[in-house]
Amino acid sequence: MTSTTDMDVSPPSIQGALTMYILYTLAFVVTITDAKQPHIVFMVADDYGWNDVGFHNPDMITPNIDKLAYEGVILNQSYVQPVCSPSRHAFMTGIYPFKSGLQHLVIKAKQASCSPLGTPFLSEYLKKLGYATHIIGKWHLGYCKWECTPTFRGFDTFYGFYNGREDYYNRSVFGGNDFRNGEEAILPDRTTYSTYIYADRDKQVISQHDKDKPFFLYFPFQSPHEPIEVPTKYENMYSNIKHEGRRKYSGMVTAMDDMVGTVTAALKEKGMYNDTLFVFTADNGGAHIFHASNYPLRGAKVTIYEGGTRAVALIAGAGLEKTGYTYNGEDFVYVYVVLIAYI
User: Parallel, antiparallel, or unpaired: how do β-strands 215-220 and 39-45 relate?
Assistant: First the structure.
């Protein structure tokens, strides 16, 4: 394993400011003395409510997320930005959005802006450490020129969409379609729900990987962001819920949880599971207008109350010194990028 003295992996602008966070995080979470670099799966739930996971609310059906949580560390005070793009920028760079010009809500579809090109991404650090790097799902960090897009920012492959939202079946957004395999515009089967499309891609990427090489999968889910669409079988799992919107949203959460299960099953089949470090977080709180619940927290997506900024989060798997507990100290998602880069 590469030591922090062998390779400078923090941008100079944040190196001193984040040293305290790095040391504190490593102290309670990860052992970095192992000889083998862990595989890393970094999952992001989109617009995910605090009360919409089983380990907070037993009415929610999320067995795969819960299993990771109970076998790992639940991060009970993990804070993010109140909307998508700023959080995603922080996930990839470890830098506060207001220091990068990304404090202006989200990057819009026709906005000539992206996460600043002079700032290295987590994927770039990990490539230097020998990792294969993949992204499946939602980008939302800008695409006004090629240099802003995933395969120009350290990812070997990209399978997903650039914008902040799109239809779960026909991939439509703002009068067009948005879906890419690398740089190539494609249009997957328009009758297949997107979580199934992403699950198939996940299985393909893992099955084709050389397990002796370190593996990084950044998996920013489309779910459960609006539009509120879900196969009937998932909606029917919540037949006790009378409100149609809440019933469908809850089904979307369980469909997302099944994707988490697909990831873990594929890693087990490949013999990589026990060597994988998992990070799971929401990008921001749930949107009440689209039927999410942040109970008992005040506020929702877009607000700076805890309902908008306190994320469902956990870390599990390879390298954990202690597991099966809830960590109640404050932490910030910016820590994750630096933590992983120091592995």
Answer: parallel
